[in-house]
Every structure is written in C-alpha cells, then in structure tokens.
Amino acid sequence: MASLRRSLISMHRILNSNQSSIASTSSRALFKPQYRWLSGISSNSQSLDIDLSNEESKRSLFNRLIYRSKQRGFLELDLVLGKWVEEHIRSMDESGIKSLVHVLDLENPDLWKWLTAQEQPPEALKINPVFTALHDKVMNKLNSHSAPETRAIPGQPWVRGWDDIKKGRDSPVAGNQ
Q1: Whole-angstrom Cα distance, residue 132 to residue 109?
Q2: DSSP helix/strand/coil, 1
Q3: According to the model, what pLDDT value does residue 136 have?
Q4: Which H or E run contains 79?
Q5: Nearest-5° angle of CA 46, CA 33, CA 24?
Q6: Closest CA to 91 of 49, 133, 123
Q7: Which end of the chain is more exposed for a tag (fewer CB within 10 A), N or C?
Q8: Which of 107, 104, 156, 157 is nearest to 128 (CA)?
Q9: Residue 150 DSSP code
Q10: How far apart are CA 5 and CA 105, in angstroms?
Q11: Which distant-in-sequence residues (6+ apart) come within 8 Å of 120 by Cβ?
Q12: Rounded-to-integer distance, Cα 139 and Cα 128, Å
C-alpha cells in the first residue's frame, strides 16, 4: 500500500512540475486527488499539511493516523503501532505528527526488523522521536516477556524452527525441515 501511495505522490509531483504544457494542465485536473488523505499526508515533509487549527480538522487527522497505524496488514505492527498511536497522538504537536507520518510511511518488514533490533535502522530514523519511543517500547516488552535465547542475535534474522533444540544426527540443518 505504501508503494502505491508513493507512486501516486510521485505521479502527482511530476504532473505539477510540468506547468508549461496544456496537456499537463488537463491531466492535473484529472489526477487531482479527491481524497484529502492522499494529498495531505505524503512522504515529503515539506508538502505535509497539518491543520490543527480547529477541532474538526484535528479529529479527522487523528482518526486517519490511528486508522493507518492499526490497519497496516502486518498483525504485530498493527498491535504495537495502533496501541502506541492511540495512547500518544492527542499529546503530539505538529512536529510529532510529522515524525509519526514518516514512521507510518515505512515499509512493514523493514519497520518490524528495525523496531525489534534485527537490523540497524538508518541514521535518519534513529533521530526520529516517534521511532525511538516505539523502539524503546518494543525492546522493553521483549526484554521483560521473552527469554534472550528465543530472540535473534542483533543483525540476524528472527527465524526459529520447532526443533532447533534437537541437534542430533537426524536433526534438520535449519528450521523445521
């Protein structure tokens, strides 16, 4: 879904950048987003419009962001992100909401690997306050509810087979083969 959204945003930028031709003017009218969430929330922080001036626009924005955080299609992220966003969105200012949007624009597998410390996140993401808070929450939960031997070594994939403990002559090489 994020790839489709990025493609549509890129197409919208291309159409907007070509102002000289008549064809682009008519195309812009055809491809003008009819849903505000497509133009209002994008991966480009400069074009991000956040209107917190009245209660209706604030409520609408919060509802969209809560929905995006709960309906990602990746159950673990739906639970972690959805609960965290519900608890913290009302106390966020404009910069916090922009940071949240940047986290929500990330791809699911990458975000999960970064939150669970399977891979190192990019430097730009390490300074994101929303990502840092989410990462701390996930790591605290992992440290308090799971044994270290059941988790991946940092930098290694998080894959365990049902019979990894059995390391005899007849055991599988990896996983549950």
Answers
A1: 17
A2: coil
A3: 94
A4: helix 75-88
A5: 85
A6: 133
A7: C
A8: 104
A9: G
A10: 9
A11: 114, 155
A12: 16
Report the distance separating Cα 132 and Cα 103, nearest Å.
10
Place of tokens 């309906």: 71
The answer for residues whose C-beta is within 8 angstroms of residue 70's C-beta and 6 or more apart is 78, 81, 82, 85
Say what the pLDDT of residue 97 is: 92
Angle between helices 75-88 and 94-104 (to 10 degrees): 180
CA angle 26, 43, 70 (to 5 degrees): 115
pLDDT along the chain (177 residues), means of 10: 73 65 40 38 51 84 92 90 93 91 93 89 93 94 81 65 56 52
The token pair that represents 14 in the structure block: 């291309």
71: amino acid identity, one letter: Q
Token pair belonging to 21: 């031709």
Environment class of residue 69 by beta-carbon count within 10 Å: exposed (0-12), middle (13-18) or buried (19+)? Answer: buried
Q: Cα dihedral sign for 44, 92, 124, 70? A: negative
Tell me the residue type at 142. Answer: L
Do you know the residue count of the chain?
177
Return the structure tokens found at 79. Answer: 């639970």
Residue 161 structure tokens: 């087979």
